[in-house]
Amino acid sequence: MAPTRLLPLISIALFITACGGGSSGSNPNSEIGKMPATPEAENWLLVWSDEFDSDGLPDPTKWDYDVGGHGWGNQEEQYYTDSETKNARVENGQLMITAIKETQAGNAYTSARLVSRNQGDWLYGRLEIRAKLPTGRGTWPAIWMLPTDWVYGDWPASGEIDIMEHVGYDQDKVHNSIHSSDFNHTKGTQITTSFMVDDASNEFHDYAVEWRENRLDFYLDDVHTFTTANSQSHPENGSSAWPFDARFHLLLNIAVGGTWGGNNGIDSNIWPQTMIVDYVRVYQAN
């Protein structure tokens, strides 16, 4: 039997903030470690993981690639490559996602965007990713989730869950967010929070989300950072507010520049930049 994990649910305090002007909005009331503790706990069963034990390309039975350089809806400046070790490789038990300053297909940078789509797809559970982030103006690393089946339509109708976003011009500030038809950055209404993480680019940290039927709880190093709940999001609107009742998959990537990551320009002297991932673990309720 796969191992189980017993984790405390540190808080059920609800912090929901609609912020204008892109994902950089933050909840000024969200300070990690300052939410009241509760005795609630849950058994989690490990159902999917990658410990990155084999050097070379990432495990093709677990990861695929989004490929291209068309801006990705955010005016990003990288070309995402397909199965190239310069941009995505496993070394010494860790996944390395590297953005490089080089021209490819008309783009000034290359990078990688790994996806577990159709090889790791889940409805509810705990996702935990241990990572060390890149640094510098123009970097935009993300650990996030998108719908696998897009049952409610194209983005943002079927939802998005951002477990971790970081933009290099605002070093050590990490963001948790969700997007839906009613709540997304194109309307300035996305539900989001932000908080400071000491040494986000020098030390590994555990970024996690616990996804239940009507609630998403976010964690940093097992300390609760943020919760958003369907009951707080006008449930009478159905999927337009809460589309998080269908399968999602995981994405790991570094974008370069773009409408958010490039707000303060791109430092041309910092490249290459790497996000290092120590492990990815997915649990579901036992």
Number of domains: 1
Helix share bin: under 10%
Low-confidence stretches: 1-40
Number of DSSP strands? 20
Instruction: Based on Cα principal axes, name the global outline.
Output: globular
- State the name of the first-level CATH class: Mainly Beta
User: What's the number of helices?
Assistant: 1
Mean pLDDT across residues:
87
Largest β-sheet summary: 11 strands, mixed
- The gyration radius over C-alpha positions equals 18 Å
Termini separation comes to 11 Å
CATH topology heading? Jelly Rolls
Strand portion? 35-45%
Class derived from helix and strand content:
mainly beta
Protein architecture, described:
It is a single chain. By secondary structure, the chain is mainly β. The protein has one helix at 258-261; strands at residues 4-8, 18-19, 41-50, 64-65, 78-80, 88-91, 94-104, 107-111, 113-115, 121-122, 125-132, 139-147, 160-165, 173-179, 190-196, 205-212, 215-220, 223-229, 248-256, 273-285. The protein has a single domain, classed as Sandwich (Jelly Rolls), CATH 2.60.120.200. The chain contains one helix and 20 strands. The radius of gyration is 18 Å and the shape is globular.
